[in-house]
Amino acid sequence: MTNANQVIRTALITTVALTTAAALWATGTVGYKRLRHRIAENAAALNETLPINSKWWRDHAKEKGELLYVAIGDSAAQGIGASEPNRGYVGVLADHIRLATGRTVRVINLSVSGATVELAVRDQLPRFVKLTPDIVTVAIGANDIALWDAAVFTAGIREVFSALPDHAIVADLPCFHFRHNELKVAVANAIVREVAAEHDLTVVPLHATTKRQGFRSIATQFANDMFHPNDRGYRIWAEAFLPALSVDVANRFPRQPSPTTPQQTPADGDITQTTGPAPVGVGGAS
Q1: Neighbouring residues of 166: CB distance < 8 A, sequence distance ≥ 6
Q2: Is residue 263 part of a domain?
Q3: Residues 6 or more apart in contact with residue 169 via CB below 8 angstroms
Q4: Torsions phi, psi for 105 (to 5 deg)
Q5: 29 and 138 share a domain?
Q6: Where are the alpha helices (DSSP H) in 150-230?
Q7: Distance (Å, whole) CA 246 – CA 253
Q8: What does pTM read for this prediction?
Q9: 111 and 199 in one domain?
Q10: Do 190 and 227 contact (CB within 8 A), yes or no?
Q11: Among 38-42, 132-136, 193-197, which stretch is predicted with the lowest mean pLDDT?
């Protein structure tokens, strides 16, 4: 092969490679744009459920119960992304409390979709301090990551945690899976644990629990907006709370025994038998 042919062959290979790469890039770019557009549409659809979920929790807060469970949080506590509001982690935990204690449970869900820690202090704490809850869960802070400010986050967490009873159960932030967010989440979770320790509060490992699900969980445990959990994802969230919650309610609200009919003891001189066949008559008379 002459040098000229080698040059032409190399040029053709290079052209084909560049053309193929450009085509793949264009296809990938179009596909990525379509994916982003679809996610945006799905997010908009989920936004339509915000007032629906909020109303659902307000309506059910009117129901009476022997125990009062209060939740502080954001859209995750509202159950956004679940098929029904009560299939979010708050609803799952409420059902567990009912089963574990054998008592009715009233749920007041103070959470607000989009809440940051600072907004929780402003909007949720004033309502919380007027209540006397038997069970409290707090999962807040995920919305702080987008516009991360460690000083604002720390100040807000201190205010929230200082208002909690010592039996409150708080969660650290969930896993975001992407490194640029996980770096901020690590700082936030260190703050959560430090402030919780100052108030002797139990911290449940939401981050470790969600991280164990792996990157693939984005496809199986998230709603169509690729941000909020779906039913399966919320069950994973609940799993982070359940060990600590189960111990807490077992210690403070042991399961009530099922009512039984007391056995009657015959009075003195009563010849009626309590066991065995009924007598046909005194002295054997028929």
Answers
A1: 199, 200, 201
A2: no
A3: 135, 136, 137, 138, 201, 202, 204, 241, 244, 245, 248
A4: -130, 125
A5: no
A6: 150-162, 179-198, 206-211, 217-220
A7: 10
A8: 0.76
A9: yes
A10: no
A11: 38-42
Same domain for 78 and 12? no
In the chain, the number of structural domains is 2
Residues 25 and 43 placed together within one structural domain of the fold: yes
Question: Among 99, 124, 95, which residue's Cα sits nearest to residue 109?
Answer: 124
- Beta bridge partners, 204, equal 171
Give the model's pLDDT for residue 85.
95
Mean pLDDT of all residues in 69-92: 96
What pLDDT shows up at residue 259? 60
Q: Which domain holds residue 58?
A: 51-252
10 and 117 housed in the same domain:
no
Least trusted range by pLDDT, from 141-145, 146-150, 175-179, 269-273: 269-273
Distance (Å, whole) CA 48 – CA 66: 33
- Are residues 86 and 30 part of one domain? no
Given its phi and psi angles, is residue 173 left (phi above 0), alpha (psi -120 to 50 degrees) or beta?
beta
